[in-house]
C-alpha cells in the first residue's frame, strides 16, 4: 500500500527545489513555490480528515492516483520543451501537485493500511508496511536525482513519465486489490475476507454472520 505513495510521484515532487534550480528558475521563486507547496500539503492532509468519511477510502485513493498520473504526464510533456513558459509550468505543478496528492494518496494510504489488516496481525502488518515504505522511498529518492541530473540520464521534466507509468500500474493494482473500508467494522472486514468477497465489492457487500461468531 505504501509503495503506491512512492509510485505516484512523491519522490519526484520532493526533488522540486533541486530540479527547479537546475532548469533555471530564479532561486527566490523556487523557494516561494516550495513554501507554497508545503502549505498546500498541510491543508490537504487536514482536509482528508473530513473528506475520507464521505467519499470513501478506495474512491479517494483511485481518484488521487488518476489526478497525480495526469499531473505527472503534463510535467513530462512540458519537459519536452525548453521555453520559459514550460519551465514555470513545471515549477508550479511540481509544488502544487500536493493539492492532489496530500488529501488522497498521501493520507488515505495510512488509513487503508491500518484498517485492512487483520486485528490479530495488525502490529506485524503495520511494521512490515512501514519497512516497505522506507525501502521503496529510499529506492525512489536514490533514483530520482540520477534521472534528473544533467551529467546522468538528463531527462529533466521528462523524468515525470517514469512516475506516470508507475502511477498507472498502481491504479490497476488498487482497482483490483484495494477494498472500500468506509463504514465497516473490523469484524465485518474479517468476515468478508474469510468469505472471499471480491475486494472491488466490499463497499456494497451484504455481510452474512460468520459461523465462528453466532448471533445471540
Automatic annotation (TrEMBL):
<feature type="transmembrane region" description="Helical">
    <location>
        <begin position="7"/>
        <end position="25"/>
    </location>
</feature>
<protein>
    <recommendedName>
        <fullName>Major facilitator superfamily (MFS) profile domain-containing protein</fullName>
    </recommendedName>
</protein>
<keyword id="KW-0812">Transmembrane</keyword>
<feature type="domain" description="Major facilitator superfamily (MFS) profile">
    <location>
        <begin position="1"/>
        <end position="182"/>
    </location>
</feature>
<feature type="transmembrane region" description="Helical">
    <location>
        <begin position="96"/>
        <end position="116"/>
    </location>
</feature>
<feature type="transmembrane region" description="Helical">
    <location>
        <begin position="59"/>
        <end position="90"/>
    </location>
</feature>
<keyword id="KW-0472">Membrane</keyword>
<dbReference type="InterPro" id="IPR005828">
    <property type="entry name" value="MFS_sugar_transport-like"/>
</dbReference>
<feature type="transmembrane region" description="Helical">
    <location>
        <begin position="160"/>
        <end position="176"/>
    </location>
</feature>
<dbReference type="GO" id="GO:0016020">
    <property type="term" value="C:membrane"/>
</dbReference>
<dbReference type="InterPro" id="IPR020846">
    <property type="entry name" value="MFS_dom"/>
</dbReference>
<dbReference type="InterPro" id="IPR050360">
    <property type="entry name" value="MFS_Sugar_Transporters"/>
</dbReference>
<feature type="transmembrane region" description="Helical">
    <location>
        <begin position="128"/>
        <end position="148"/>
    </location>
</feature>
<feature type="transmembrane region" description="Helical">
    <location>
        <begin position="31"/>
        <end position="52"/>
    </location>
</feature>
<comment type="similarity">
    <text>Belongs to the major facilitator superfamily. Sugar transporter (TC 2.A.1.1) family.</text>
</comment>
<dbReference type="InterPro" id="IPR036259">
    <property type="entry name" value="MFS_trans_sf"/>
</dbReference>
<keyword id="KW-1133">Transmembrane helix</keyword>
<dbReference type="GO" id="GO:0005351">
    <property type="term" value="F:carbohydrate:proton symporter activity"/>
</dbReference>
<dbReference type="Pfam" id="PF00083">
    <property type="entry name" value="Sugar_tr"/>
</dbReference>
